[in-house]
Design brief:
- The complex is a heterotrimer.
- Chain A is an alpha+beta fold.
- In chain A, about 40% of the residues lie in helices and about 15% in strands.
- In chain A, helix 1 (about 20-40) runs antiparallel to helix 12 (about 300-310), helix 7 (about 170-180) packs across helix 8 (about 195-210) and helix 14 runs antiparallel to helix 15 (about 370-385).
- The longest helix of chain A has 18 residues, at about 20-40.
- Chain A starts with 14 loop residues before the first strand and ends in a 5-residue tail after the last helix.
- In chain B, helix 5 (about 105-115) packs across helix 8 (about 155-180) and helix 9 (about 185-195) crosses helix 10 (about 200-225).
- Chain B is about 75% helix and about 0% strand.
- Chain B contains 13 helices and no strands.
- In chain C, strands 1-2 form a two-stranded antiparallel ribbon.
- Chain C starts with a helix and ends with a helix.
- In chain C, about 45% of the residues are buried.
- The chains are: A alpha+beta, B mainly alpha, C mainly alpha.
């Protein structure tokens, strides 16, 4: 995908840029002004999020990495350890970034990516459905929230209450973070799920499915989650800022006055939730580092951040951008609050895999194939196995 | 060297060289990889790769998902081979019937799914099997049967994929069996008919023994094919629900290319190889014992 | 007579029903691809479009420009990639295996029988065993994300070689010996006698190779990282896993992948099927 160049002569060949989902789909919009200003073309490739991990690893193995790419903060530890991500040349690039997002991109005191967007998980809810049981906004503690769910289910027994699917780990992990569970021990080399906090989170998660508040389904089966939410099959949808874009584009199906946004509930009030921060990274294999960092500077600039926000609803990770009027809408307030309280995740290579495997065991638990104690024990065993290599390297002193 | 020999080496050299480089060499390397713990840490430093002997294999035996993948793959083969062979045979018998007209037309139409791409047709079938909007559940309700949550129920997911796989491949063996049926000795048939044998009797005692070797060969090749199912779960179910459609090859792909545990993934590949070898040998031995070969 | 009529009716109906059921998925694929967006997410599922629309194909195949930026699913480039890769794979495959098959059948050279046994044994080894180390090998050779990397593994055509050998076995020895006595060179014999005799088998093999390369999925998925180089199945898989919700768009992508194959297969099906028949019974 080439953006048209206005200047007639360019000494650089095109920069390659990879991103996933909407960020990838809409990035070309941001590239036109960059090309106009510098004369460097940018080729954008949008990866499917389910295949991004293997695509990037094989690209790195084959020395085919793009010049600039977007990494979720959970993968920064992994990709920096294998030597795929170049550290920032100067801290000025991140001088203005929200501390929570910045911490997620730092490793051993060095910055590896420029936080671009921060997406905390919040809940979207149907105002009209909640109104039928006399609520303006959803309660913010677990018990009352679940009671709300039960009341809604009694009114509409054929529908569900919460749209959370069994192959997305974020809901479960948000519950774990809020309960205060510490997920790994022994310098992050062993699983630590057999704790009362984790058990509390798992029990709450399981109850959502057992009481029919959430469907036992995967993302491959719910063909159009938005249509289901719009049709009232779900009253609450824990989701990300990108849903704002869908809500805007499909407002004919679901008018603005029928939905609202709130923070997710915690055991005794709102707490840290899962946050996906996407970071702009420059590859160590690029042969045009100057141009690559110029592109990063451009994409992370307030102007680009604001443009992206209006295009896809992405929330900027740059603090100064939040003072702009377009970000002063009431609907964004829960996001801003939540962004100040993100969950801190372990910075290990295997974190992505750990999340996937925990969710797989949780799915089996939800389907009645495991009890909660069995599930937690299984998870600990699995994590110990996954981290075996890390454990041996840590014990040998080869990595921190 | 004689003139023939020289020519022969010219003619066969290139392809043999490619086979050696692209096939034999990697297989030997796979053996080597499977006894190391080559993983993503190898990117950081070559020294992170260590010899672990049978460690990968033992680790696999302690990985529940590996056993589940084995069980799923076995289920695919055990259910799928009879379905596919059965349908192919039935279709071949139909096409062989004297009273059927326009045979070339039917033959082409029934064979068409075989030449299509797995990815494209998996997409179509994922839609067909959709619980609410799919044609299959619609057909079920039309005859009064309850709908099935094909791709959402862990117990229905393997049958769902098998419906698709059977549809896709039955045309191939149908053609093979058609040829075999045409080669059944007619004089034996006549003799049996004159002896008053029923149609089933003629089938059992004349047709079946005559096509026995072909049936066996087709079954052996089918089993090997079913043990290597990958694209269907990859496109349709991502290995779910509840990992009920994770096959050995899917497990190997994830382990090797998603998580970069090439050591362990190579161990899986070798186990798959041994499995296929064992199953095909057992089948051939059974066939020889029953004098079908 | 009456029994014959009933039997004929039953048999013909059975075949017709089986064929109809077999073709329904393919027909539905085409009809849904012409439906407007969202029309198929209804119960009962529509079989026929209320309104025929090209919009899915337009969105899938045409580069669209929004505010100065181009959007493209890159299906057309993938189509050309698949075509190029399949054509090259077929040409090279024929070049490599037809002479070799003849050599194994008719030329006497030391080690012929042993090599043959090794290759037949190799047939049992599933290709996936080699896949992971092959990736590492290609990585060292710089062949990751290249067309050569996609085509090369497919050229190890043991199956094709044995297929050609099977057909070449039936060439009469006397013909070849007579030509040799006349003083013809081996090359001349191959060109003027063997090739014409193997022509039908070559056509069949070409079809096999082309279709095999076109439909190949797992290896291109692994080796190609750049969207520009994707072959059609890989490009479609990338869209499908992401856009599960857009049924009509997915059907259009499926049509684009299967139509070329069916269009090639239908006129040439005689060769393909007869090739299957000749090579199969003897195993």
């Amino acid at each position: 995908m080439l953006a048209t160049a206005c200047s007639s002569h360019t000494a650089h060949k095109a920069l390659r840029f990879w991103a996933t989902s909407y960020e990838g789909d809409y990035a070309p919009h941001l590239m036109t002004s960059f090309t106009a200003r510098t004369g460097i073309d940018v080729e954008v490739q949008s990866l499917p999020s389910t295949a991004a991990h293997e695509k990037m690893l094989t690209a790195f193995a084959g020395r085919e990495m793009p010049d600039v790419f977007v990494l979720p903060s959970g993968w920064i530890a992994e990709f920096s350890l294998i030597g795929a991500v170049a550290p920032l040349p100067s801290p000025r690039l991140v001088s203005d970034v929200i501390p929570a997002a910045l911490a997620m991109a730092r490793l051993h005191g060095r910055n590896y990516g420029v936080p671009w967007s921060a997406a905390p998980q919040v809940q979207f809810y149907r105002r009209d459905l909640l109104a039928t049981i006399g609520l303006d906004t959803p309660p913010l503690d677990w018990e009352s929230w679940r009671r709300m769910g039960r009341d809604l289910k009694r009114k509409r027994p054929d529908d569900f209450v919460v749209l959370t699917l069994l192959n997305w780990p974020d809901m479960l992990f948000t519950l774990l973070y809020q309960s205060g569970a510490v997920l790994l021990r022994d310098r992050d080399t062993r699983g630590n799920f057999r704790t009362p906090e984790a058990e509390q989170a798992f029990a709450f998660y399981a109850s959502l499915f057992a009481e029919g508040l959430a469907p036992r389904a995967l993302s491959t089966e719910v063909q159009d989650g938005f249509a289901a939410f719009a049709q009232g099959r779900y009253a609450v949808w824990p989701s990300w800022p990108s849903l704002l874009l869908d809500l805007h584009r499909r407002r004919a199906e679901l008018p603005a006055e029928r939905w609202g946004v709130a923070r997710l509930p915690g055991p005794r009030g709102p707490g840290p939730t899962a946050m996906i921060a996407s970071n702009l990274c420059v590859s160590t294999q690029t042969d045009q580092p100057d141009a690559a960092w110029a592109l990063v500077r451009h994409l992370a600039s307030p102007a680009s951040e604001l443009r992206f926000q209006s295009l896809i609803g992405n929330l900027p990770a740059r603090a100064s951008v939040w003072t702009a009027p377009q970000l002063n809408q009431p609907v964004l307030r829960p996001f801003a609050e939540q962004m100040r309280q993100p969950a801190i995740t372990p910075k290990i290579i295997e974190w992505e895999r750990v999340q996937v495997e925990v969710q797989l065991v949780a799915e089996r638990m939800v389907r009645g194939l495991l009890t909660i104690p069995q599930a937690l024990a299984t998870i600990d065993g699995r994590i110990d196995q996954i981290l075996a290599k890390r454990r041996s390297l840590v014990e040998a002193g080869r990595i921190a | 060297m004689t003139r023939q020999e020289r020519t022969a080496w010219w003619l066969t050299g290139p392809v043999l060289a490619i086979v050696a480089g692209v096939f034999l060499l990697p297989v030997l390397l796979a053996l080597a990889l499977s006894v190391t713990d080559y993983s993503i840490y190898a990117f950081a430093s070559r020294a992170n790769v260590q010899f672990v002997g049978l460690g990968n294999f033992i680790g696999l035996l302690r990985t529940p998902l590996f056993w589940r993948a084995l069980a799923n793959t076995a289920l695919f083969a055990v259910l799928g081979v009879p379905m596919a062979i059965g349908l192919s045979l039935a279709a071949a018998l139909l096409l062989h019937d004297k009273t059927v007209r326009w045979k070339p037309l039917w033959r082409v139409a029934l064979f068409a799914p075989y030449v299509t791409s797995v990815v494209a047709t998996a997409v179509v079938w994922r839609f067909l099997l959709n619980t609410r909007y799919g044609l299959i559940n619609y057909a079920l309700t039309a005859v009064g049967l309850p709908t099935v949550d094909w791709l959402g129920n862990p117990h229905a997911s393997i049958p769902a994929i098998l419906l698709f796989v059977t549809w896709k491949i039955f045309g191939y063996n149908m053609i093979v069996f058609t040829a075999a049926l045409a080669a059944v000795p007619q004089d034996l048939m006549e003799a049996a008919r004159l002896d008053g044998a029923s149609r089933w009797g003629r089938f059992r005692h004349v047709t079946l023994p005559a096509i026995g070797p072909t049936l066996l060969l087709a079954s052996v090749m089918s089993v090997a094919g079913f043990l290597q199912i990958f694209a269907e779960p990859y496109v349709m179910t991502l290995g779910g629900p509840a990992q009920s459609t994770v096959t050995v090859l899917y497990f190997m792909f994830d382990e090797g290319f998603k998580w970069w545990n090439l050591g362990q993934a190579s161990a899986v590949a070798l186990i798959l190889f041994v499995l296929i070898l064992a199953v095909t040998n057992v089948q051939t031995w059974l066939g020889r014992r029953n004098q079908w070969l | 007579m009456k029994r014959h009529r009933i039997r004929s009716l039953v048999a013909n109906t059975a075949v017709a029903v089986l064929t109809a059921v077999t073709l329904v998925p393919l027909v539905w694929m085409v009809t849904v691809s012409f439906m407007p967006r969202g029309a198929s997410s209804h119960f009962p599922p529509p079989f026929w479009p209320e309104r025929w629309s090209w919009e899915n194909y337009y969105e899938l195949l045409v580069r669209r420009n929004f505010d100065g930026a181009w959007f493209d699913y890159r299906i057309m480039p993938a189509l050309w990639n698949s075509l190029a890769v399949a054509a090259i794979a077929t040409a090279l495959g024929l070049l490599l295996t037809v002479p070799a098959g003849y050599a194994f059948a008719k030329l006497r050279f030391t080690g012929r029988e042993r090599l043959l046994k090794v290759m037949i044994a190799a047939l049992v080894v599933p290709g996936q065993v080699a896949m992971l180390p092959l990736f590492l090998l290609f990585k060292e050779l710089g062949l990751v994300n290249s067309y050569a990397g996609v085509i090369l593994p497919g050229l190890a055509g043991i199956f094709s070689l044995l297929f050609v050998r099977q057909a070449a076995l039936s060439i009469p020895e006397e013909m070849l010996d007579a030509a040799r006595l006349d003083g013809a060179s081996e090359a001349r014999i191959f060109r003027s006698i063997v090739l014409p005799l193997l022509a039908p088998i070559t056509v069949t093999l070409a079809l096999f190779l082309f279709l095999g390369s076109w439909n190949d999925f797992l290896w291109p998925l692994i080796i190609l990282t750049d969207q520009h180089k994707y072959t059609l199945p890989v490009a479609v898989a990338a869209i499908v896993r992401e856009h599960a919700a857009d049924g009509e768009l997915m059907m259009a992508a499926a049509v684009v992948t299967t139509m070329p194959v069916l269009l090639i297969f239908l006129p040439l099906q005689r060769y393909y099927i007869s090739g299957l028949l000749s090579g199969s019974i003897k195993g």
